[in-house]
Hints:
The protein is mostly beta strands. It contains 2 helices and 14 strands. The strands form 4 sheets. Strands 4-3-6-7 form a 4-stranded antiparallel sheet, with no helix packed on it. Helix 1 (150-156) packs antiparallel against helix 2.
Amino acid sequence: MKKVIYSIAILFAFALTACNPVEDYTEQNAVNIEGEQIDATLVQEDGDNLVKVTVHTKGTAQISNGKQTIKANYADLIMREMGENTVYIKVLCADGRIVEKQYPITVTKMNHPLPVLETIVWQGEQSCGDWDGASLRFSDTEGKLPTLSDDTYDWMVGKKMCVDISAVNGEGTTIRVTNGWWSTEYVSDTEVHAGDKFVFEFTKEMADECKKGGLGKDLLFVSNKGLTITKFYYEL
């Protein structure tokens, strides 16, 4: 059965200013250094969660707050947590090594909105009728959503997964999370409305039962009246 690997999409809710990354690494635009030799300037105003990062070391850099990574030598980086944070800077050396230096940052003010970061497992538009056991099943052969790989199921364990619901078939419409065999009710019938983001925690039990390398039961969403979904994803 064909495997479908989830795609990763990072969406930014603000305009990010960064220089164009250098794609080709040569002796002319990179040097050989150790991590502690990375030369960078970090500018933060009065504990704000916006940090302006400039990497002066020759070579293409990656600037990260641990969740959002920007391939550039300059970036306006939004820190996501109050208190102690870390800016991670990596540089690719001329000899192919990647070196890293960490800069501690303390945030006392969250003046800048956090960018929305998403990992999208599936995106499109698919509807189900009342207690339709096929339309919203992740199975190429027995459903209308793509088969998810075992690696995808393992990756989802412990994460709060989101489902965007664009339409429902009347008041009192519910969604249930189960599997293609209807053998386990992972999330009981929950009322939803058009425009809702339905959130549930994906567990190891779900992965073990749904994986092809497990019991092969496939993840399934069902509804008492029917609804339409447009995206299944993880949001940081």
